[in-house]
Amino acid sequence: MSAIGTFLHYLYYLCYPFVLLIKWLVALFVIITAPVLHVGHYIWYACWWPWRFLGRFETLYIFFGVAILVGAFAGTFLHYSSAFFMTTLNLNAAQHERGRTLASYRAQHKEKHAKNARISMPRVDMRPKIGGTLKDDNSEWLKQQDKNQAMKGLLSTTILEEDDSSEAGF
After folding, report:
1. pLDDT at 132 over 60
2. Which band of pLDDT confidence, cut at 50, 70 and 90, is reported for residue 47?
């Protein structure tokens, strides 16, 4: 054991100048690159800031993640169980007819407009009155309307309220 210890002792003193040289070079390198390392530290901190901020909401992530999983499993279970019961109980045997198609709607719409056009066409044998005005044709109605407004006065434009005659106040 003494031979190994002696060998390591000589090896240490033999390598000590190289180790010392490497220590000085590393110290010089650290001194030269200190500003770059300082700025790099701030850049690194800025890059990790969003993750640190979002880390505060870790409990919400866990809660919503579990809620999503429970909802997905419950929805899948309900889908397959309802499909099973529908086929087992034969509830979907009667297929519903679809409503009318666009083509049938358009055809029905054209028929309706054609029918209305035939009804609204003027008759050839009717002749308009000559010398009469629209006011003369509706003069009785206009006179009746004027009398009603003259009799009522402002009461025709007033909104009357009902009085409550019950004692209970309903």
Report:
1. no
2. very high
DSSP E strand stretches across the chain: none
What are the b/e assignments for 7-35, b being 16+ CB within 10 Å? eeeeeeeeeeeeeeeeeeeeeeeeeeeee
Residue 100 has pLDDT above 80, yes or no: no
Band of residue 36 on the pLDDT scale cut at 50, 70, 90: very high
Contact 147, 140 (CB under 8 A): no
57 Cα distance to chain centroid: 24
Residue 123 pLDDT class (50, 70, 90 cuts): low
Copy the structure tokens of residue 43.
């850049």
Q: Residue 160 corresponds to which amino acid?
A: L
Between CA 170 and CA 161 the distance in angstroms is 15
Q: Give the contacts of 137 (CB within 8 A, at least 6 positions apart).
A: 129
CA distance 148 to 155: 11
3-state SS assignment for residue 169: coil
Q: Which phi and psi angles does 158 have, rounded to 5°?
A: -90, 140
* Residues 74-100, mean pLDDT to the nearest whole number: 83
